[in-house]
Amino acid sequence: QVQLVESGGGLVQAGGSLRLSCVVSGRTVSAYAMGWFRQAPGKEREFVAGISRSGVSTYYADSVKGRFTISRDNAKNTVYLQMNSLKPEDTAIYYCATGPNIPKLATYEYDYWGQGTQVTVSS
Question: Which pLDDT band holds residue 29 (cuts at 50, 70, 90)?
Fold first, then answer.
C-alpha cells in the first residue's frame, strides 16, 4: 500500500519561510517523478513544482519560481519543498504526489497523493 505523508505546514508571516516534507512508503521513490501541488479555497488544485527521478531536473510554476525549491532524498524516500519569501497568495493546502516517469503538470498524471498540509501566510 502506497502512502504519502506531508508535514511542515503552518502559519507564517509574509516574507517568511517554511520547509515541507513528504515521506513515501510502499513505493520506491527513485523510480518515479514527484510533484507538489496546492489548492486554495474555491480554486482548482494547481501544479507548484516537480522533480525528476534522479533529482537533476526540476520544474516550477511561474508564480513560485525563484522562491521555492524542490528536492529529494531517494535514500530516505522523501521529497522536500523549501518555500522562501512567502506571500499571502501562497496560502493553500499543499499536496505531494507520485506516479509519472517524468514530472507532469496535470493532476491526473499522478496516481498517489498525500493528505495535504496547510500553509497559511499572513500579511
Answer: confident
**Residue 17 DSSP class:** -
Asked if 110 and 47 count as a contact pair (C-beta separation under 8 A), the reply is no
Decide: helix, strand or coil at residue 74. helix
What phi and psi values does residue 19 have, to the nearest 5 degrees? -125, 115
Other CB atoms within 10 A of residue 90 CB: 22
pLDDT at 28: 87
CA distance 84 to 48: 14
Read off the DSSP letter of residue 32.
Answer: S
CB atoms within 10 A of CB 86: 22
Query: What sign has the CA pseudo-torsion 49, 51, 55, 59?
Result: negative
